[in-house]
Design brief:
The chain is an alpha+beta fold and about 350 residues long. The protein has helices spanning about 1-15, 30-35, 60-70, 80-90, 105-115, 125-130, 135-155, 165-175, 240-260, 265-280, and strands spanning about 20-25, 45-50, 50-55, 70-75, 95-100, 120, 180, 185-190, 210-215, 220, 225, 225-235, 290, 300-305, 315-320, 320-325, 330, 335-340, 345. The protein has a six-stranded mixed sheet, sandwiched between helices. Helix 7 crosses helix 8. The chain is elongated and about 75 Å long. Bound molecules: manganese (II) ion (MN). Manganese (II) ion binds near residues 226, 291, 318, 320 and 334.
C-alpha cells in the first residue's frame, strides 16, 4: 500500500507542476501501475485531484476496491464512467483538470475537451519509464522464465515439427511456470521465414540444415520479457549465415556495452547499426535497435535512430539487431536490459 500511495503522490506532484488541479486516468495499464489492480480496458475511470482519488468503476468492483483501498472513493457506475467523472469535476469545482491526450480515443478525448478538461501529458507513462527495485525484480523473473523456455525447447527441436507446434510447447511451459500470457504473439520461424523480421508463426515444418529464429516473451507479475535467439539447425551451416550471425552477435554486444545513464537511445542504435553497416549489411537491418519494456511490451524510452531520450538508471530496454537476407535466411539476437549506475545488465541470460 505504501507503493500505491507513493506513486499517487508522485503523480499529484507532476500534475501540480503543470498547474493542474486534477487529472483523469482511463488507461487500464496506467491504472494497474498506480493501484496494482487489474481492470480490463474501459472498466474504470480514475480522477485524481488535490483532495483525493475517485474511482468510477463497474458495480462488481466496488466492494473489493473499497476493502483494499480505504482511501479511494469508489463509485459504482456500469456505464458512462467518463461522463460521471466530468460531473464530479464540476461538483468539486475543479478548473484545470487534465487528460492524457496521447491515450484517449478521438471520442473520449473530445468529450473531455468540450467539457472543459485540458490536453495534458502522459504523466503516468513518464513515471513508468523508471522502474523501481520491485519492478526490476519482476522483470528479472519474467526474463528468467523466457530464458529457461529457450533452454527447454532448443534440444526438443526436431525435423518435421511445425513452427506452431514449437510455439505451443513453449507457451505451455511458460504458462505452467506461472505466467499470465505471452508478451506478444510468439514468433517461430524456420528456413526462409527467418528472413521476415515479423514472421507470423505457421504450419511450416522444420527441415534439417536450415535457419531457426525464435522471438518470444511472457508476462509475469504484470511485467513483460522479450528475447530472440537464432541458430543454424544442422551440420552444414553456410558461410554467409555464420558471417551474418557473427556480425549480429558483435552488434548486440556493442549496443549493450554502450548503454549507460546519460546516453541517448539514438547513440545506442548508432553503435550497433554501425557494426552492421561496416560489415556491408546496413540495408538488411530494417528496424530499430530496441524498445522499452515494462507493463507493456513496447514502451518508452526506445533505442532507435531518432530517440533523443536520455537513458537513466531503471530504464529497461531491448537490444535486438538483425540482418535479413530475403528468400534465404535472417538472424536476430535480442536481450532485455536494465540501465544501472554505470552501464546495463542483461536480464535475459543467466
Ligand atoms: Mn523486442
Amino acid at each position: 500500500m505504501q507503493k500505491v500511495i507513493a506513486r499517487i503522490n508522485t503523480l499529484k506532484k507532476l500534475i501540480q507542476q503543470d498547474q493542474l488541479d486534477g487529472f483523469v486516468i482511463t488507461n487500464n495499464i496506467d491504472q494497474f501501475y498506480l493501484l496494482g489492480f487489474y481492470f480490463y480496458p474501459g472498466e474504470a475511470v480514475l480522477l485524481l485531484h488535490e483532495g483525493g482519488l475517485v474511482c468510477f468503476t463497474r458495480q462488481l468492483y466496488v466492494e473489493p476496491l473499497t476493502q483494499q483501498y480505504p482511501f479511494i472513493r469508489v463509485i459504482g457506475q456500469d456505464k458512462q464512467m467518463a461522463a460521471a467523472a466530468i460531473k464530479e469535476v464540476q461538483d468539486l469545482g475543479l478548473h484545470h483538470v487534465g487528460f492524457d491526450a496521447g491515450k484517449e480515443s478521438y471520442l473520449s478525448g473530445n468529450l473531455f475537451k468540450v467539457s472543459g478538461l485540458v490536453e495534458a501529458q502522459s504523466y503516468v507513462s513518464a513515471q513508468r519509464q523508471v522502474k523501481d527495485a520491485e519492478e526490476i525484480a519482476a522483470l528479472r523473473d519474467s526474463c528468467k522464465i523466457a530464458y529457461d523456455t529457450y533452454e527447454y525447447i532448443r534440444p526438443l527441436l526436431k525435423e518435421g515439427m511445425t513452427e506452431l507446434e514449437v510455439a505451443a510447447e513453449m507457451e505451455k511451459y511458460m504458462r505452467i511456470r506461472g505466467v499470465s500470457a505471452t508478451s506478444f504473439l510468439t514468433i517461430i520461424a524456420f528456413g526462409e521465414n527467418t528472413a521476415n523480421a515479423h514472421h507470423e508463426t505457421s504450419d511450416r515444418k522444420l527441415k534439417y540444415n536450415e535457419a531457426v529464429l525464435m522471438d518470444f516473451g511472457c508476462i509475469y507479475k504484470g511485467y513483460c520479457s522479450d528475447m530472440t535467439r537464432s541458430w543454424w539447425f544442422g551440420d552444414k551451416e553456410p558461410a554467409e549465415y555464420t558471417k551474418i550471425w557473427n556480425t549480429v552477435n558483435k552488434a548486440w554486444k556493442a549496443g549493450i556495452a554502450a548503454e549507460k545513464p546519460g546516453k541517448t537511445g539514438q547513440e545506442i542504435d548508432a553503435v550497433a547499426r554501425g557494426i552492421i553497416t561496416d560489415a556491408g549489411y546496413g540495408e538488411y537491418f530494417t528496424h530499430r535497435l530496441g524498445h522499452g519494456v515494462g507493463l507493456e511490451i513496447h514502451e518508452e524510452p526506445c533505442n532507435d535512430q531518432t530517440s533523443q531520450a536520455v537513458l537513466q538508471k531503471g530504464n529497461v530496454l531491448t537490444v535486438e539487431p538483425g540482418i535479413y537476407l530475403p528468400g534465404k535466411f535472417g538472424v536476430r539476437l535480442e536481450e532485455t536490459t536494465v540501465i544501472t549506475d554505470e552501464g546495463a545488465d542483461i536480464l535475459t541470460r543467466p
